[in-house]
Design a protein that fits this description.
The complex is a heterodimer of chains A (102) and B (236). With 102 residues, chain A is mainly alpha-helical. Chain A has a single domain, classed as Helix Hairpins. Helix content of chain A is 75%, strand content 0%. The chains are: A mainly alpha (102), B mainly alpha (236).
Chain lengths: 102, 236
């Protein structure tokens, strides 16, 4: 198994870990962090899969996609944080309400 | 926190998802064709010699144009959520911090300029340069909070939209000259990419700085007042 495949597998585990936090926790900040972890997993998969042929130079297309994705992730995080601040100001809690029927 | 059985079901489903990803990754053909060969075959026509910059600004120019639009939309979203009142500094920044800023800011500007220029032939480019510029802006905001009230100033607003305006202007211009959208004339590709990247760098830097403030800065009757950005962050 090459190193690039190992990194890709780590990336998919990272994605699932982030996904778990996104579902399991009600606090908005944790959800925003979880989405960022999921994004990091995807970026890790893309960057490492671009390097599957170590004897040649890496594939530039996934690298460019990751660069694009990073900027989008930063701006989406900023917007999400601003929204979370707004929720906190309006409801004086940054938690999503728990479902009563659980 | 959800009750235990629900948690267990989520964990099992996510393990299955991870297994699915692993299967997809492991079953990728090792000797499949990739876009890499096409990129390296055409890089001579792209105007730059760094393959990542060639993909970002030339072969996949749409992606980058839309991405800069996403940044702009994020600013619009944050600004539409409400205004933020920038306080006068309760305590002026320390002597050491000011001295450090005086050394760091020019160095960061220089680094951003270098990264922008290096992007044509080495790792670097508009995003890296924009990130450094954004970092410089945030450092400035943290040291001199009153600076944030100038964000609504028209030159900064122009810089905020410069990336989209220049990028789409070049794209439409190449259409007017008989090409397709974002199809640069071959001899001009290098200089056009540099122009687009310069505008994008400034836009990205200013955008990151503006997003850090977390709202549209407001000036109540000329003087700035009320809570600080720091307090606002503490509440989350």
């Amino acid at each position: 198994m090459s190193v690039s495949i190992l990194y890709s597998l780590v990336g998919s585990v990272l994605f699932s870990l982030g996904f778990y936090s996104l579902i399991a926790y009600a606090h908005l900040l944790r959800k925003i962090l979880a989405i960022n972890i999921m994004g990091s997993g995807v970026f890790l998969i893309l960057v490492s899969l671009a390097y599957r042929w170590p004897e040649t130079s890496p594939d530039p297309v996934p690298h460019a996609m990751v660069l694009t994705g990073l900027v989008v992730a930063v701006s989406a995080t900023a917007l999400a944080l601003a929204l979370a601040c707004r929720v906190q100001e309006t409801t004086s809690s940054a938690q999503l309400p728990e479902d009563e029927s659980d | 926190m959800r009750p235990f059985p629900a948690k267990l079901i989520i964990i099992l489903l996510l393990m299955a998802l991870t297994g699915l990803f692993a299967w997809a990754i492991l079953s990728l053909p090792l000797n499949g064709t990739s876009l890499r060969t096409q990129v390296f075959a055409n890089i001579g026509h792209s105007g730059v010699s760094n393959p990542v910059t060639a993909v970002l600004l030339n072969f996949r120019g749409y992606d980058t144009l839309l991405e800069i639009t996403v940044l702009f939309l994020a600013v619009l979203g944050v600004w539409s959520l409400g205004t933020i009142h920038i306080p006068d500094l309760l305590q002026p920044a320390g002597l050491f911090l000011m001295a450090l800023l005086r050394i760091l800011l020019p160095a960061m500007m220089l680094t951003a300029g270098y990264l922008l220029w290096a992007g044509a032939h080495a790792p670097g480019g508009a995003f890296q340069a924009g990130a450094v510029l954004g970092g410089a802006g945030i450092l400035l905001l943290l040291t001199e909070v009153r600076f944030a009230s100038t964000i609504d100033w028209w030159p900064l607003r122009t810089l905020l939209s410069a990336g989209i305006l220049v990028f789409s202007g070049v794209g439409l211009g190449s259409m007017a000259l008989g090409g397709r959208l974002l199809e640069y004339p071959r001899d001009w590709a290098g200089i056009l990419i540099l122009i687009i990247e310069s505008a994008a760098t400034l836009s990205i830097g200013v955008t990151l700085m503006v997003l850090f403030v977390g709202g549209k800065p407001s000036k109540a009757d000329g003087t700035v007042s009320m809570k600080s950005t720091g307090q606002r962050e503490d509440k989350t």
